[in-house]
From TrEMBL:
Name listed for the protein in its UniProt record: E3 ubiquitin-protein ligase Sina-like RING finger domain-containing protein
Top-rank lineage group of the source organism: Eukaryota
InterPro entries for this protein: SINA-like_animal (IPR004162), Sina-like_RING (IPR049548), Znf_RING/FYVE/PHD (IPR013083)
Single GO MF annotation: ubiquitin protein ligase activity
UniProt keywords, alphabetically: Metal-binding, Zinc, Zinc-finger
Domain E3 ubiquitin-protein ligase Sina-like RING finger: 19-54
Pfam family, one: Sina_RING
Taxon lineage: Eukaryota, Metazoa, Ecdysozoa, Arthropoda, Hexapoda
Coiled coil: none
PANTHER family: E3 UBIQUITIN-PROTEIN LIGASE SIAH2, E3 UBIQUITIN-PROTEIN LIGASE SINA-RELATED
GO cellular component: cytoplasm
Length: 261
C-alpha cells in the first residue's frame, strides 16, 4: 500500500467514524445508538439526548470493540482542515500540532484579543508585539520591569531559546510581583526546561529564584513554588534605578526526560 492509498483509507475510516456533533473521528469514551451510530460521550453529555442521525435512543453500554479499534488505527490530525498533514495514533500529535488553536498571551493587561493557530501566533508576535519577543542569546536574557508604572497589572513576554518557545507571565497582585513561565510545544517534549530569575543591585545578586517551565495548558501554577516566584514589590523598589525600573536576568538550562523501558 503506497502513501496515497494509506491516506485514502484513513480518510474513509475517519468519515465512517465521524462524530455527528464535533465532526471529527469519535473519541473514546464513546456512546452508540440502537442503530450503531457512534458519538463522543463528551459531545452527548453536553449537547444531545438522542442520536442526531436517526433520532433513536442511546444504548447504556459503550461500543468497546470500536473504541479499541480506533485507539490503534492511525488517523488524520483533527486540524487537517487547517492544513496539517500529520498521521498519528492516540491523538499524540494534536497536543503539539502547530495548527492547533490558541489565544495570544502576549502584551500588557491581557488586551490582545488575537486568536489563531500556534504557527500564525509566531508571526503575530513578531508583527504586533515585537518589543515583547526575545531571543535568548547564550541561554541568557535581560528584561526590565517598570515598578513605578502603575498602569499595568500584567505583562507577558515571549522567550525563544534553542528553538523552544516560552511565555513569561508577569503579574502584580496585592503588592507582589508574580512570575511564571509556560512552554509552547511544537513536538513531544524530550527535555524539562528550567529557568533562574535573578535580580541584582550594583552587580551583586540580591534575589535568585529557580523555577520550572510549566506546560502550556497546565493550570493553577501561580501558587506552585516549583513553577512561580513571588517577590514583594517594596523589596524590588529598593533595587530600582532613578527611573523606577528593575532589570531581571534570566538563565536557561534543560535536563533530559528519562526514558521508560
Amino acid at each position: 500500500m503506497d502513501d496515497t492509498e494509506l491516506l485514502n483509507l484513513i480518510k474513509s475510516i475517519d468519515d465512517i467514524t465521524k462524530c455527528p456533533i464535533c465532526l471529527v473521528r469519535a473519541q473514546p469514551p464513546m456512546t452508540a445508538c440502537v442503530n450503531g451510530h457512534a458519538i463522543c460521550t463528551k459531545c452527548r453529555n453536553v449537547q444531545v439526548t438522542e442520536c442526531p442521525l436517526c433520532m433513536q435512543e442511546f444504548l447504556t453500554t459503550r461500543p468497546h470493540v470500536l473504541e479499541q479499534l480506533l485507539e490503534v488505527l492511525p488517523g488524520l490530525c483533527k486540524y487537517a482542515i487547517k492544513g496539517c498533514t500529520a498521521i498519528s495514533r492516540f491523538n499524540r500529535h494534536e497536543r503539539f500540532c502547530k495548527y492547533r488553536e490558541m489565544r495570544c498571551m502576549l502584551g500588557q493587561n491581557n488586551l490582545c484579543d488575537w486568536r489563531g493557530t500556534v504557527k500564525d501566533w509566531l508571526a503575530h508576535g513578531e508583527d504586533k508585539h515585537f518589543f515583547l519577543t526575545n531571543q535568548m542569546t547564550d541561554k541568557f536574557l535581560e528584561i526590565s520591569h517598570s515598578i513605578s508604572d502603575l498602569s499595568w497589572t500584567s505583562k507577558n513576554f515571549r522567550l525563544t531559546v534553542e528553538s523552544n518557545v516560552f511565555v513569561l507571565h508577569t503579574k502584580r497582585l496585592e503588592g507582589e510581583l508574580i512570575q511564571y513561565i509556560k512552554h509552547i510545544p511544537f513536538h513531544a517534549p524530550t527535555h524539562l526546561h528550567h529557568f533562574t530569575l535573578i535580580f541584582k543591585k550594583n552587580q551583586e545578586v540580591v534575589y535568585k529564584f529557580p523555577i520550572k517551565a510549566a506546560n502550556q495548558n497546565e493550570k493553577e501554577i501561580q501558587d506552585n513554588s516549583l513553577y512561580s516566584l513571588w517577590v514583594p514589590i517594596a523589596n524590588l523598589q529598593l533595587l530600582a534605578n532613578e527611573y523606577g525600573t528593575v532589570t531581571m536576568f534570566i538563565e536557561y538550562t534543560k535536563t533530559s526526560i528519562p526514558t521508560t523501558k
